[in-house]
Design goal:
Elements (H helix, E strand, L loop, with lengths): L2 H7 L13 H12 L9 E6 L2 H15 L13 E7 L7 H28 L3 E4 L2 H7 L2 H6 L7 E9 L22
Antiparallel strand pairs: 1-2, 2-4, 3-4
Helix pairs in contact: 1-4, 2-4, 3-5
Bound molecules: flavin mononucleotide.
Length: about 180
């Protein structure tokens, strides 16, 4: 798919049709993460979860965390959930600690965005997913089920799957971020 179309067709999709992407397709999304522009001083890990029971564990944790009266489908029935975990920095030097942790956010964004764009180019849909991440952060047993390495924090995640929703080619929202052109 043409890159401009990928950019304009990407949107957070909250309705999946249950079709499981094949392993090769999932691997392409992971390859996109591994092609992202990241500085090399962070230790990261990706968990690619297709086990429905494990996804349910996280959804249960999110319902508990959000104290929902009726169980909510936080994961929208997506068949693939990719979690990025990593180490937060605790250097002796507060300047390098702050710089590294600031750069951590930047790197996390790059990795997630590369996966979302690759998903669109492959005809998949995606959705950034923080609701279940915050919920599993304090749940060691769920982190274990997600194979998050010891000492790593869950940082971000993305849902991937097929949807029957038609892509809506979006227009640029010029009000989204104020821009200064310093010429
Ligand atoms: C950091 C981050 C966390 C998000 N967490 C959630 C979430 O927990 N649940 C959800 O439905 N969407 C989540 N989203 C999707 C956003 O709501 C969505 O990106 C935003 O509304 C803009 O819409 P768009 O992606 O269609 O452009 C998240 C997106 C980002 C970037």
């Amino acid at each position: 798919m043409e890159f401009e179309k990928v950019l304009r067709n990407r949107a957070s999709v909250r309705k999946y049709n249950g079709r499981m992407p094949d392993d090769e397709t999932i691997q392409k999304v992971i390859d996109a993460a591994l092609l992202s522009p990241i500085v090399r001083w962070h230790k990261f890990h990706l968990s690619v979860v297709t086990d429905k029971e494990v996804i349910q564990l996280a959804e249960d944790a999110a319902n508990e965390y959000a104290k929902t009266k009726e169980p909510r489908k936080f994961m929208y029935g997506a068949p693939v959930w990719i979690i990025l975990s990593g180490e937060r920095h605790t250097d002796n030097d507060p300047v390098t600690e702050k710089m590294k942790n600031d750069n951590l956010f930047w790197n996390v964004g790059s990795i997630i965005e590369n996966m979302e764009l690759e998903a669109v180019s492959l005809g998949l849909a995606s959705c950034g997913m923080n609701a279940t991440i915050v919920a599993v952060r304090e749940k060691p047993e769920v982190k274990k089920a997600l194979e998050v390495p010891e000492g790593y924090d869950v940082l971000a995640s993305v849902l991937i799957g097929y949807t029957d929703d038609e892509p809506n080619e979006r227009q640029v929202n010029y009000g989204l971020i104020p821009v200064s052109y310093v010429k």
